[in-house]
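tool_call: predict_structure(chain=1)
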Amino acid sequence: MKTKIASLILILVVTFSVAQNVESTTRKFIDESQYTRINKDWNITAEFKSGIGEYVKFFPIEVIDLKSGEKMEALQLDMYIKKPEVYKTAWVGLDEVADFINFVELNVVPNLDMRLKKKSSEFIFNAKEMTLAYFVYGKKRRLTIKLNDYDNGEFKNYTFWTETQVDKIPRLLEVLKVIK
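tool_result:
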């Protein structure tokens, strides 16, 4: 019995460790290309700002392997946070965009006006390189965007959150639908 429990714990630890360092298909495509071009459309963005000057910007990109001519569409996320002061980029691959659209469209947007009395509810979307959470507690609402540990960096938790920009979530959905 103890052997079975120890084996189960070992499997869970290994699975959890491997799952923590997962790159998006976009990052893999860029890493495997010798020459890369990334086209960004700055007219189509969803931007969330905090009261202390931090921000997260989402926008569609086209990545081109200049040697092979192969192209890929994706969502790029640029995050600037102050503690630690860092500017990071993450990608959501095309293989994850449809699920991201469904999550926002079916779970977040319909609940933007949700109010709970002495209860809370949190909606979480996990992509390979980022996690988005929409949290409701009483009359308060919060959007949290966390970069997952995809690069084994010094800091494991790059997190942005805002309570005042939650109403901009439908704009994120518009940006996602451009990629689809």
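agent: Confidence is low (pLDDT under 50) at residues 2-19. Proceeding to next step.
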